[in-house]
């Protein structure tokens, strides 16, 4: 809770800086608050793997703009944010004598999911058609996002069993991937492709696999 309050305080602080822009081109910046909603997909999955309904995620944060040319339509962005994500599928985790084992569920169950809470740092190369007095414009931002998971939780529920595993060691706490957002005004398409796997050492029936994250959704920027 303290970490969330600190992040919110930083967002309001930097948001206030963003609102104090002048109309002078020499002081013009694209400092922004951002909010994204997306669908979480897993790729490079083992045989028999299936998603289970809609796996959603949200992110909120602030990005500091660093212009690279006099026109200020090209720049870099570095930010700080917070994200929450859910992954629903049929990949079961079982804790046995302190070790995590994986299996593919082939029976009826009520819920099988992972939830994550993370601090994220986006780094972007930015192109836009904005001007000091033009707030609706085209943009393409691409870059990399690094996330550190503050909390991970796996939960499983069926008609007979109900259990949770907090911060399972088989989940990578550090995640990083490529990002791309493009659109007009506040409405922008967003995608994230994970470069490192979500899980560590997934081995099912002596078949090892690397499972990566693919996020597709919308991201909104507020000046």
Task: Explain the overall architecture.
The chain has 223 residues and is mainly beta. The chain has a domain of 86 residues. Strands 1-2-3-6-7-9-10-13 form an eight-stranded antiparallel β-barrel. The chain has a two-stranded antiparallel ribbon with strand order 4-5. A two-stranded antiparallel sheet has the order 11-12. Strand 11 and strand 12 form a beta hairpin. The longest helix has 18 residues. The two termini are 27 Å apart.
Give the termini distance in whole angstroms. 27 Å
Estimate what percentage of residues fall within beta strands.
Answer: over 45%
- The neighbouring-strand order within the major sheet is 1-2-3-6-7-9-10-13
Structural class: mainly beta
Order of helices and strands: HEEEEEEEEEEEEE
> What are the segments in which pLDDT stays under 50 over at least 5 consecutive residues?
12-24
Write down the Rg.
20 Å
Global mean pLDDT:
86
The backbone outline, from C-alpha atoms, is: elongated
What kind of sheet is the major sheet? 8 strands, antiparallel, barrel
Helical content band: under 10%
Total number of helical segments?
A: 1
